[in-house]
Amino acid sequence: MAAVDLAQAQRAQDRLLATVGDHPDVNGIGIGRLDDGYVLKVNLLREVARSAVPSEIDGVTVCVQTTGSVRKRQVA
User: What letters, b where the CB count within 10 A reaches 16 and e where it falls short, cover 36-56?
Assistant: First the structure.
């Protein structure tokens, strides 16, 4: 598969947001680097929601990670 450029990843991110952005277990959708191209990254609250996220959208690989809830850290 050819490397995905940033513009292609951004278009796919918009489609992915429209597809799963309102899912209650999705707590983040972003773009990440992989080798010489880009992938989409989805952070989930719970593993059970993984089946709701496609593995690829518009030719862009979607990487899913279960992170649990994300909170701002307190700086001491």
Answer: ebbbbbbbbbeeebeeebbee
- Residue 57 within any structural domain of the chain: yes
State both tokens at 1: 């598969």
pTM of the predicted model as reported, rounded to 2 decimal places: 0.84
Judge whether 14 lies within some domain: yes
Whether 49 is in a domain gets the answer: yes
**Strand ranges (E), the chain:** 26-34, 37-44, 56-57, 60-66
User: What is the model's pLDDT at position 22?
Assistant: 93
